[in-house]
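Long-time lurker, first post. I've been practising inverse folding by hand and with some scripts of my own, and I keep getting stuck on stretches where the structure tokens seem ambiguous. Below is the full token string for one chain I'm working on. Before anyone asks, I'm not after the true native sequence, just a reasonable design that respects the backbone. If someone could post their per-position residues I'd love to compare against what I wrote down in my notebook.
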């Protein structure tokens, strides 16, 4: 079981230990797209079935599947996701004229 307070860096390292296939880069990318599609199916299901605990659990699991493949792709390209978050957030702050928010 992973720790409750695990960091982005720890998750990225963990994913590399359980799933790292640089030779399957394109398939990994397609898996990410597939998982986004699965999340879409679950969210669309709310329109007809309403939001149930089971549906919310499915959405939770699909979000993790997406995170898994995002981390996998970052590892394939040797990209530090913490650094990506920091740099891109600064870029977005300017791009969207976002002010610093109080914590
Ligand atoms: Mg899935």
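-- Answer (accepted) --
I ran through it position by position. Result:
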């Amino acid at each position: 079981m992973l720790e409750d307070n695990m960091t982005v860096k720890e998750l990225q390292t963990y994913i590399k230990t359980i799933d790292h296939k640089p030779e399957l880069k394109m398939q990994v990318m397609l898996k990410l797209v597939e998982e986004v599609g699965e999340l879409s199916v679950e969210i669309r299901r709310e329109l007809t079935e309403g939001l149930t605990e089971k549906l919310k659990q499915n959405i939770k699991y699909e979000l993790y599947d997406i995170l898994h493949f995002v981390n996998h792709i970052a590892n394939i390209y040797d990209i530090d996701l913490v650094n990506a978050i920091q740099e891109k957030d600064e870029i977005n702050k300017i791009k969207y004229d976002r002010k610093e928010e109080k914590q």
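A couple of notes from the structure itself: The chain has one domain: 8-95. The domain at 8-95 is CATH 1.10.287.1080 (Helix Hairpins). Happy to go over any region you disagree with.
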